[in-house]
Amino acid sequence: MAKVKEIQEEPLEKQLWKAADKLRKNIDAAKYKDVVLGLIFLRYISISFESLYNELVKQQADGADPEDREEYMAENVFYVPANARWSYLVSVAKNPLIGKYIDDAMDAIEHENKTLKGILPKVFSRSELDPTSLGELIDLIGNSTLQNTSTKSADLLGHVFEYFLGEFALAEGKKGGQFYTPRSVVELLVNMLEPYKGRVLDPCCGSGGMFVQSEKFVKEHQGRIENISVYGQESNQTTWRLCKMNLAIRGIDASQVKWNTEGSFLNDAHRDVKADFVMANPPFNDSDWSGDQLRSDARWQYGVPPAGNANFAWIQHFIYHLAPSGQAGFVLAKGSLTSKTAGEGDIRKALIDKGMIACIVNLPAKLFLNTQIPACLWFVTRNRTKRAGEILFIDARNKGHLINRRTRELSEEDIQEIANTYHLWRDESADYQDIAGFCASVPVSRVAELDYVLTPGRYVGLPEEEDDFNFAERFTALKAEFEEQLKEEERLNKLILENLGKINING
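^ thats the sequence. predicted structure below, dont judge the formating
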């Protein structure tokens, strides 16, 4: 009996995931993702449509027309044509041609709603998913707990969509990390930056997690969601579609979330945008960023980044897009804190000397799905009036907990502790104090003495008690750092050999 009760008390999103995952059978998670998330999106817009439709039916005597698309546009609700409504799909769910009916429904919705053009998946009739399983999925997603056409039901589906994104990322492993930044990392960035209002930019936005968490933050702090506007760019079209659906399900205007195959460096879709907040998780140590074509780019205000590594190109791209008092928070490989390869040390020195770097956070291992490379957070601020000439270092390597053997996440308490430490320091509060082994406020002169290295461990020291030191975890982290250094040396040697080859040819 205890086991039955435990299953019943599981959150709805977990119950749905387990049931949907059983129906996956032998289908690759990457392909199944489009099927399930597409149906959740379809259910969401049906709930919103049906709610307004029923209100308009009641107002027909006063001239309202429940089939007038303009009525829905006026209320910022997607119009759903008859052959795409959930009730219709339920009626044909057992039909062997259900896949074609769903594809036709997606086409019809895109035709009636121009902002969704080219976004919705049409993979249902050619998917490996058999018609019976597809019909069962429709029944599952439209079960009794979601039948209520209330705002609460729509919010619940938004939460389910977000949860499923994370679960699919876990299922896909390394590939999943390309479209999904772990929720706890995004929450930490958002809670530290506090984007209450203004322009929020993510030039490598994945499935839109930064924007969703920013919207949550504003709502949770009694702000007005219309006071923020989002700007994004993504080079992977499938991921861009996920992002557009993720934002649409939240009611976030995604008109400024752009896609092109060239990416933000070669084809900056928001060249003239100056953002109040930049938040991003760019690809770690990307060597294929077309750096050779951009040697004289105007964005390199602190030094020309090496063609073989995009880390310092991303940093300068983010700064280029900051408004005069803008702030940026982003994830980078930990090697960016120490590297001196091909001028990276000089760029880091220039950033420090100009007072751009406000805070560095060392993250625990195993947070990211697509890499074991140690990671950190950078926080950059233009025109600081407080704490000028200082950098806050936070060493959070011992924070977080394992959710499985390979993956760690930060708890709400971890996020609040790190974010509150930053806020107390930033606001020059008397309550801020350095804590041995965790945080330290360090003058830039001291950083200069240590050759402009930004590794938090150099500055925060050791905690007073190390009784709970985890040798195995520390060994794993050091091994990953060592392997990353070897890769960096290999890359540098390759670069040297290539340049020598060019010299010989020209000679």
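The radius of gyration is 25 Å.
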